[in-house]
Amino acid sequence: MNRHAYLTGPVVFVAGLLALLATWLVMEPAALHHAFDQDGYSPFELATIPFYAVLIPLVWWKCPFTGSRTRRTILCLAVSCVAFMAVVKEMDLHVMAMHNLYPDVVKADGSVYGLVKPDGQPLTGTPFKMRFLTNGGAPLGAKAIAIAYFSLFFGVFGVTLAYFAKDLIVGFFRKVPPAWSMCCFGTAGVMVQLCDRMPAWIRHIRHLPKPKGNEIDSISSLFTALEEGGEMLIAIFAILAILQAHALFNRPSAQAT
Fold first, then answer.
1. Which residues contact 242 (CB under 8 A, 6 or more apart)?
2. Contact in structure between 231 and 196 (CB atoms under 8 Å)
3. Which pLDDT belongs to residue 256?
4. Tens-place pLDDT, residues 179-224
5. 75-108 per-residue burial string, b: 16 or more CB within 10 A, e: under 16
6. What are phi and psi of 232, to 5 degrees?
7. Is the N or the C terminus of the chain less surrounded, counting Cβ atoms within 10 Å?
């Protein structure tokens, strides 16, 4: 593998950001929002789904892991589980399931209704919040679905990440390409979370009211592009890391050792 291959991840990251910024500059805010964010069914969101879905067959075909067959199988299963749950999240299937199974407490848009907090105020938000899990009036089955969602998605991902934490840190300083791609993966994930909350933070700091109706301003559309684009970048970096690790660990010299 080329000695500069570790730069592939950063180059892709910068290219992705530039493409998103260029898109933001040439599109009207409302049009960009419509193309990037429609509760999981915008053109861009739908285009993101295959990037996550392809991870499942790819991780088995181009296994990026070493060690015994059992170890490789367990790790491939973990990646497949997280990728599947990412597809579920992108398509809001967990919200759809919760609404269909418990329509008396969860609306079609995923918001909770008909429950109250200990202070007597109505419970708001989605069922995938701690305040829903600790609410005495919430159905046990709905709580079980929420816990399963967090466990299969964030739990499996967290355990897998912790398992490879030392390898990622060492690999970063040794300029190992998959480690750098996974660092870009994490950076894109942080960007998504920040961009998701940034419009509300800016309004709070500047003491601005929430936009009326479907009003979309330029700043909100920028963070929408970066958030949704970042979700696609996450999948792209996962694909890149798998391919790089497979190429690295399946070289003749690596197999000989």
1. 55, 58, 59, 62, 64, 79, 178
2. no
3. 42
4. 999 999 999 999 999 998 887 788 778 776 666 656 788 888 999 9
5. bbebbbbbbbbbbbbbbbebbeebbeebeebbee
6. -70, -40
7. C
